[in-house]
């Protein structure tokens, strides 16, 4: 895993997401309205609905996301790539999970050649962040203002119930080397059933 710092004044995701999610404090999102989330419900909260609705109504997020990829992510990667147009939105509410199962992304139709950028919009630590299982199990901790590049396609990962005093809001998005893009083996994404093609799931 590689961790990289960026300028939160220039890329002010925190203020943007407070407006998108209609909350005053991203770290105080509780789970009183939701049972324990599952793989079929972890992308159906009111916060997911607000995120997807508002980024389509207003292109502010898309513009910032694209600039961020060009200025911050591209130099980190150092090769030509395509990236996930609509990133995955996560909210790890206090007392709940953000992802409903332990998995590798390849379990859900993704190519083993894909990598992932994790961008927390609150501090991610302890049981409010995601965990990975490699030689041992450990939390992937990352402060707001940093991103982590890692291999979600082939690394087992998941959540634990958030027993901290802070909810975690984050996005993550996959990228694929251009020379690995293959239209002959196109699948669909699990949650939103988008074809893995440029213009639908992928962007350049």
Would you write up a description of this structure?
- The chain has helices at residues 13-21, 46-57, 60-77, and strands at 2-5, 81-84, 88-92, 115-120, 131-133, 137-139, 146-150, 156-158, 168-177, 202-203.
- Helix content is 19%, strand content 22%.
- The protein is built from three helices and ten strands.
- The two termini are 23 Å apart.
- By secondary structure, it is α+β, with helices and mostly antiparallel strands.
- The protein is globular.
- The strands form two sheets. Strands 1, 2, 3, 4, 7, 9 and 10 form a seven-stranded antiparallel β-sheet that branches. A three-stranded antiparallel β-sheet has the order 6-5-8, with no helix packed on it.
* Mean pLDDT rating: 92
Number of strands: 10
Give the biggest beta sheet: 7 strands, antiparallel
Oligomeric grouping of the chains: single chain
Strand content: 15-25%
Shape: globular
Q: How many DSSP H or I helices? A: 3
Distance between the termini: 23 Å
């Amino acid at each position: 895993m590689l961790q990289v710092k960026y300028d939160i004044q220039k890329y002010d995701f925190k203020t943007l997401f407070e407006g998108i999610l209609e909350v005053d404090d991203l770290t105080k999102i509780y789970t009183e309205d939701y049972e324990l989330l599952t793989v079929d419900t972890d992308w159906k909260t009111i916060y997911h609905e607000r995120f997807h609705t508002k980024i389509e109504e207003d292109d502010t997020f898309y513009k910032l996301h694209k600039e961020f990829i060009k200025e911050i992510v591209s130099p980190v990667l150092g090769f030509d790539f395509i990236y996930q147009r609509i990133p995955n939105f996560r909210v790890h509410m206090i007392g709940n999970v953000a992802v409903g199962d332990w998995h590798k992304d390849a379990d859900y139709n993704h190519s083993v050649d894909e990598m992932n950028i994790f961008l927390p919009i609150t501090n991610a630590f302890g049981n409010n962040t995601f965990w990975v299982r490699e030689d041992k199990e450990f939390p992937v901790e990352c402060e707001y203002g940093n991103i982590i590049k890692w291999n979600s396609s082939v690394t087992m990962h998941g959540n634990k119930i958030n027993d901290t005093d802070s909810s975690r809001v984050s996005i993550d998005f996959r990228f694929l080397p251009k020379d690995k893009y293959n239209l002959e083996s196109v699948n669909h994404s699990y949650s939103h059933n988008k074809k893995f093609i440029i213009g639908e799931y992928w962007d350049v």
